[in-house]
Design goal:
heteropentamer, A alpha/beta (234), B mainly alpha (231), C alpha+beta (353), B: 231 residues, mainly alpha, MetI-like fold, 10 helices, 0% strand, C: 353 residues, alpha+beta, Rossmann fold, OB fold (Dihydrolipoamide Acetyltransferase, E2P), 2 domains, five-stranded antiparallel sheet, 9 helices, binds adenosine-5'-triphosphate, binds magnesium ion
Chain lengths: 234, 231, 353, 353, 231
């Protein structure tokens, strides 16, 4: 077990990463144990000495947090993948919207609420807020936000028809049959949704860096894109 | 420690939600706790298990189940909305419901426990004095169960104050509507550097809980005096 | 009238009992500890369901296997063996509990009367938790009376009371019985109480009735009185009061008179006296110059020997009267059935208890 | 010996009491309901802390304001007014509870004896919840005895028992008292029990002792004793046994003989006889042809009237002897101090109970 | 429903964590519940409040506090590790600790409630029979408190089975080590298409809870019979 490589990863990556771990193990590499939790929890745990070799965060501030505290090796930090933001509606909804300056999202909401991950604390929400600000409609909808704990919960509100519209990651939106992707935000309308990763300072596995390289290898990237993720920014 | 208007708003909302949660739970919890203590019936174990589910399941799952059931088009949400005009989605009423569901097993167990200890010989005596069962319940059983009702209320109030997972999953975190203390605290802990405001809110929670418990303790002592138990 | 005819089985304890309690009279359940007295009363009160049988009070069928009137609609006052006061209510609220729920058309006791009688006025504001044993029992009696019941079920109600209090409560119960014609079912181990209150005794052993009859009969003879030898209970009529010496002359049996300490009953009234056999001496002739006031002509009806050295003599004085003497005295007097003797009974030995 | 001298205040109820209970003797606490009897016993047992005073048992100071020996190290057997059985333990385990913890060097009662005496063998496997009132009380008595205490505190222990059971338990308690020299502090409202068991009576009213004295004296005073009048306790020497009639002749006072039912003591041995005044009749001359065996020459020493109609006469028969007669008899016999009379006492009345 | 080896592993881990949590809570909860029921002392309200904190605070905050305290270099973690070799951080022992802390108020309140109803006169009787206070406690008080201890155990076991927020924050969700049922359920709900496995795990949770409650109910009936209360 001393050989195993422990990966601390944001929960939203779990199904892709499980597959990648299996592929890694199949190559005769040490077993990979993935530990999923919110990025915030993982960052704090690393800061407090959690044993782990690799940290994959869902956003950059928490990666910066651990870098600043010198509990990851900054020179190993890379971007794993990117994600898109999509506007979604319940499957039966006929709403049509295209992101553009002052596009009529508030009117489309009507009395309903716009389901987002908490824009003050959760990365997905922060990106959504930035996109809406980019198009100048944030002010119109800021009073009508339902702040979910994370992008998955935001998706559930729409899937259950509680909210007429939501903004979530593209990866989440595409696999939920009860929602329809109304539109995606164009690249550049918000800071890139980047999943940064790094080797921790107290990593014990000699293969940690090799694992990062493996994740960036073309087969791994293909699997990520299969799940809807975008390639890491150049 | 001076509270900001935002903090005051969160505090008042939290207390309102917890108080309502206790208020709507009380009568059913008394009925259920008493029935479980007193009667054996087929399916009792199943009812007991269902009551405990909110404890056993991750709160997020409970919230998700509530969401499915009480969504405007959900199997319970639709009739409630159509017939009674009650809408839980994204409203503080939903937060009350979530808190009530999570606190219910605690309240019920405490009440059940004290219902078990009420001496039935006293109830018999009351019947021979002309009191029909419902009067016996109100004048003898219920007062003698008071410590359990009180303890259950305290537990459920505290649990409601602290309810997080089910609430955020069911009704999300809407400032002024469903963003209670734990949700606000959670939000702060999710951003690097949010520890300061989170700590302030935590202290507010502690203060509320302390006040509630102090009140309960006073009441409890009064009850103990009432039945003449040595102090 | 209370009519009882019930049977039930309690986990190995088998009970079957049938008897009546006529209006205005007290029937005593008499039997050893564990014989089933409290269980019977519970059945009458509706707190325990008999396996079969019937319970009828004042003509209303309260139980018959199909009908089972709930306790609160039986209107029976039950004084429990254990007081069963409500611990969360003050003494006053305990007392008022049944009173508030009583039918207004039947009023046998008022709050003030009961409180005064039982001497619990100073306790009204207290909670039962700190009351003494006797105080608790007094409150329990008051509570049952104030429910204005149409019959009383009393399970050793006076056991924890001192004799002065008993002497106050007993006449009150007698008055209730007489004034309101209440039937009273009464459990007590105290023979004096039973003799004084009860007209009928139901003797019960191991859940079975072994005898029902008038007090005189049931409490005379060996069965109950064997501590002091058998006792005689006589029904008597008040003949004369002697105010000067504080005595009353009673007529017992055919023209025979018995002098007892003053009895507060009008002339012609009926009383019962209990005479212990050990208090009855025998003489061959009517002695003089002796302090013993009662010297009754009698003939020996029967002689029994409960032990080799003790002789119990059943005398006939118009009614039966038991006397206990030593074997030596019996031989000296040559006692034999049919022999004429004089029964000597001290007046002070007849003091009503 | 139990030495008690305590004072305490309970929320308005003021208690102060001082008295001793010598070894091998029973002291009865006698007083009306609520007078403070149970409270005193609680203080002796260490369950209630007096405000001040002292409690000493067998020379060991159990309480004196500084010292306060905890109840479990007082080794006193307490029979509570309410039985206080442990509801979660079987009757047998209840009984064994104290026995298992008893000091092995003092053994006053064995399990089998106690179970047989109290007739609770068939209940051993039961839980207290379903016991009858008397059954509960019997188990409570057994439990206290089996703790092998060095003194007994009994708060109305026999109140719920029937007279047959009482008649079995009383002699057992007497034997414990005599054989092991146990001091016993006893509360009862039943005069017979007190008369029978107790040497001393402590009379208590509203938390204050109003009299301490020998049973005979205390029971003559009126308040308590007017049932039987005063009693006389005579010290006597065994003179002769009469095996044929089961009698024993005792010498009481100067040469005077008293015939009692057989006493199991060797000739020359000393015994105490208690003679109730109500059992002593008077005659002007020695009567013949009478069943009363004891006819003692006496002279009237003193005459008192506890009530207008009752006369208590102190006779001199070499020792004092009390007799109670009616006022009418006293007048007929013209009783006056100095007058010579014959005291008549039935043999069967002297039966040791 | 056949369980996969992974599910069996999760199930066994959950039961182990919950059982240990109950086991280590029991003695302190009895002591504290009893003390709170029986004694008045300065600071009692404060202790009571601290006990209730895990209810009132969002579990994430509790987990965070535990993390800070019991981290390998934390103020409690360091000495525990150095002196006793006990390491809570990121191990199943940490999950036990988190579950115990969250379940403690529930257990304590139930025990306290039944401690209040034990008749002190029975304890007095036991003392006069030669039992010193600790024996009285073990032979009289504790058995009579049994219904409360049982109810508290059930509540705390259920709560431990369902504990999520504090656990994931404190010890993360390490497969085979700290990934109990709720954490696994949560993980599945966080990925698209995870609802099926999440539902399976939820049903497993429900089954465990049902089994535990059925056992408790049987015990409870046995207890009721023991004190001879009418069934
Ligand atoms: N905590 C208390 N506060 C006020 N009064 C009390 C308290 N405890 C007992 N008393 C009173 O003290 C008195 C003495 O009580 P105690 O139990 O000693 O009486 P008792 O002589 O044993 O009476 P009984 O024969 O009825 O059992 C009673 O009047 C009772 O009401
Ligand atoms: N649930 C039960 N299971 C078995 N036996 C029982 C049950 N309930 C009562 N008994 C027994 O039934 C008998 C009758 O009890 P009951 O209380 O009627 O007696 P009692 O005549 O009132 O006696 P006491 O004079 O001692 O109060 C007792 O021997 C008692 O032990
Ligand atoms: Mg009875
Ligand atoms: Mg008393």
């Amino acid at each position: 077990a001393a050989q195993e490589i422990r990966v601390l990863a944001a929960a939203s990556l779990s199904n892709v990463l499980d597959g990648l771990c299996a592929a890694w193990f199949a190559k005769g590499e040490p077993r990979c144990v993935a530990v999923y939790a919110a990025s915030s929890a993982l960052a704090r745990q690393i800061e407090n000495g959690a044993p782990g070799d690799v940290f994959i965060s869902a956003d950059e501030p928490w990666m910066k947090h651990v870098v600043d505290r010198k509990v990851v090796r900054p020179e190993t930090q890379r971007a794993l993948a990117t994600n898109l933001l999509a506007i979604i509606a319940p499957a039966g909804s006929k709403v049509a919207l295209a992101p553009a300056p002052n596009f009529p999202i508030a009117a489309a909401l009507g009395e309903g609420r716009l389901s987002l991950a908490d824009p003050d604390s959760v990365p997905a929400g922060r990106y959504a807020k930035a996109a809406l600000q980019h198009f100048g409609v944030w002010e119109q909808v800021s009073g009508k936000i339902a702040r979910a704990e994370n992008a998955r919960d935001a998706l559930a509100f729409v899937a259950r028809g509680v909210a007429p519209l939501g903004i979530v990651y593209g990866t989440d939106a595409r696999v939920e049959p009860k929602v329809r992707v109304v539109a995606s935000f164009p690249v550049g309308s918000h800071p890139p949704v980047v999943y940064p990763m790094a080797v921790t300072a107290n990593a014990r596995s000699p293969r940690a860096q090799a694992f990062l390289d493996f994740l960036l290898s073309p087969p791994s990237q293909a699997a990520l894109q299969e799940a809807g993720f975008g390639p890491p920014p150049k | 420690m001076l509270l900001s208007p935002e903090e005051v708003g969160i505090l008042l909302l939290s207390v309102k939600v917890a108080a309502w949660s206790v208020a709507i739970s009380l009568a059913p919890a008394i009925a259920v706790g008493w029935a479980l203590a007193r009667y054996s019936f087929p399916g009792k174990a199943a009812i007991d298990a269902i009551l405990h589910l909110p404890l056993v399941l991750p709160p997020v799952v409970v919230g998700y189940v509530l969401l499915i059931l009480f969504a405007p088009k959900g199997p319970l949400g639709a009739p409630l909305r159509d017939w009674f005009g009650i809408d839980f989605a994204f409203s503080w009423r939903g937060a009350v419901l979530a808190a009530a569901v999570m606190g219910f097993p605690l309240m019920t167990q405490a009440i059940r426990l004290s219902a078990q200890t009420v001496d039935r010989k006293l109830e018999q005596a009351a019947r021979t004095l002309g009191a029909p069962p419902w009067q016996v319940f109100l004048t003898i059983t219920l007062p003698l169960m008071a410590p359990g009702v009180l303890a259950g209320t305290v537990l459920s109030f505290a649990r409601s104050l602290g309810e997080f997972g089910a609430t955020i999953t069911f009704v999300s975190s809407i400032p002024g509507e469903t963003r209670t203390l734990p949700l606000a605290i959670y939000a702060y802990t999710q951003v690097p550097g949010g520890d300061g405001p989170a700590l302030r809110l935590t202290l507010i929670s502690v203060a509320v809980a302390l006040a509630a418990l102090a009140g309960a303790e006073l009441l409890n002592r009064a009850l103990a005096r009432r039945v003449g138990a040595p102090a | 009238m209370i009519e009882v005819d019930i049977a039930l089985n309690l986990d190995g304890f088998d009970l079957a009992a049938a008897f009546d309690v006529p209006d205005g009279s007290v029937t005593a359940l008499f039997g050893r500890s564990g014989s089933g007295k409290s269980t019977i009363i519970d059945c009458v009160a509706g707190l325990r369901r008999p396996d079969r049988g019937r319970v009828v009070v004042a003509g209303e069928t309260l139980f018959d296997g199909t009908i089972n009137v709930p306790p609160e609609r039986r209107h029976l006052g039950y004084v429990f063996q254990d007081a069963r006061l409500f611990p969360h209510l003050s003494v006053e609220t305990n007392l008022r509990y049944g009173e508030r729920r009583a039918r207004t058309d039947r009023r046998i006791a008022t709050f003030d009367d009961v409180v005064t009688l039982l001497g619990i006025g100073h306790l009204l504001a207290r909670r039962p938790g700190t009351l003494s044993g006797g105080e608790r029992q007094r409150v329990a009696i008051g509570r049952a009376l104030l429910a204005q019941p149409r019959a009383l079920l009393m399970d050793e109600p006076l056991a924890a009371l001192d004799r002065e209090r008993k002497a106050e409560v007993l006449p009150y119960i007698e008055r209730l019985r007489d004034r309101f014609g209440l039937p009273i079912l009464y459990v007590s181990h105290a023979v004096e109480e039973v003799v004084r209150l009860a007209r009928t005794v139901v003797r019960i052993e191991h859940g079975r009735i072994t005898g029902i009859g008038p007090v005189e009969e049931m409490l005379s003879g060996g069965a109950i009185g064997d501590e002091h030898g058998p006792a005689t209970v006589l029904r008597a009529i008040v003949k004369r009061h002697d105010a000067r010496f504080g005595l009353t002359a009673l007529e017992v049996g055919a023209g025979r008179e018995l002098v007892t300490p003053a009895v507060e009953r009008p002339i012609g009234g009926e009383v019962r006296v209990r005479i212990l056999a050990r208090d009855v001496s025998l003489a061959l002739e009517r002695p003089t110059g002796i302090s013993i006031q009662n010297r009754l002509e009698a003939s020996v009806a029967e002689i029994t020997r409960p032990s080799p050295f003790i002789v119990d003599v059943r005398l006939d004085i118009g009614a039966p009267l038991w006397s206990r003497v030593s074997a030596k005295a019996a031989e000296e007097l040559a006692l034999a059935p049919g022999k004429r003797v004089v029964a000597l009974i001290k007046t002070v030995a007849l003091e009503r208890e």
